[in-house]
Every structure is written in C-alpha cells, then in structure tokens.
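Handout, page 2. Input:
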Amino acid sequence: MAITLLGIDPGLRNTGWGVISAEDNRLSHIADGRIVSKDSAPLAERLKQLFDGLQEVVRTYKPVEVAVEETFVNVNAASTLKLGQARGVAMLAPATLSIPVAEYPPNLIKKSVVGTGHAAKEQVKMMVKTLLPGCLIETPDAADALAVAICHAHHRERDALTRQLAKQLEGAGQ
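Output:
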C-alpha cells in the first residue's frame, strides 16, 4: 500500500516542501514547492505565514507522516535562532493535525540520497531528480525538502521500531 510522505526544509525566508508516495522501495513524486515569508513583516507574522502555508500543504496532500531537517548550528547565533523558530513551526503545523513528525540531521539526509554525508546541493538535486523521475524541482528549497522525504522513506520503519521498543521498555520500567 502506498503512503504519502511530506518532507520539509525549514527556513525563515524560504521553507521548502516536497510530497512523495512510497510503496515498498518505489518512490514517486507528487508535488513540491516553497513557502516564502515577507522579509518586511515582524517575526511573529513571518512565522504565522510559514505555519499557515504548511498547514495548507498538509491539508491539500494529506501526508501520513512528515519529516523535517534538523537545525545546523550557524556561525551567526541570531540566524541559528531564527532557523530554529522556523523549524519549530515546521514541526508544529503537522503536529497540530495529529500527524507524526520525524527529524533527520543534514548529513544523514545527504547520505541517504547521494551516498555521502557531505554532498553538495547540486549533487542532492541531481539525485532527487534521478530517484523521482519526472519531477522538475524549481527551487533548491524544494529539492532539499524532497531529499528529506526520501530520507524518511528509507528510515521510517527503523524509526517506528525504535519508538515501539522505547514504549515497551518504558512500560516495563513502571
């Protein structure tokens, strides 16, 4: 049975999103895009723009699970904080609709798609197009989001088993 997965590449200015279908080892492209917040708007309004845009994507494509790229630590602390806030919104938007959200570090995403954790953005985009024939990918943010979705498709069963084991161990400790 095919399932729909949403990958999100969070950013305050541009948040990329990509929706794929996964059935066994077969992946197919459904849609991708980006949500842009207005630079001139106050931070709270920009975060609301991202939240509203992501909820619209979730309501339109009805993913079963969502995956979000983890925040990398930037040299600029203020930029890292803003990215973290955008990432929080990216996790909250599907969570408020009771959709499970997984997180993956950038190196694991690249390794899952390209085969190396230090791949360049162009390599990631090229491999996403190879793994999802027919997708056009107009923005780097959308390519990164599709890579997040592909990574989740590859790791979701292992992650589900880990969560199940953790619950069992938690129950045994009570």
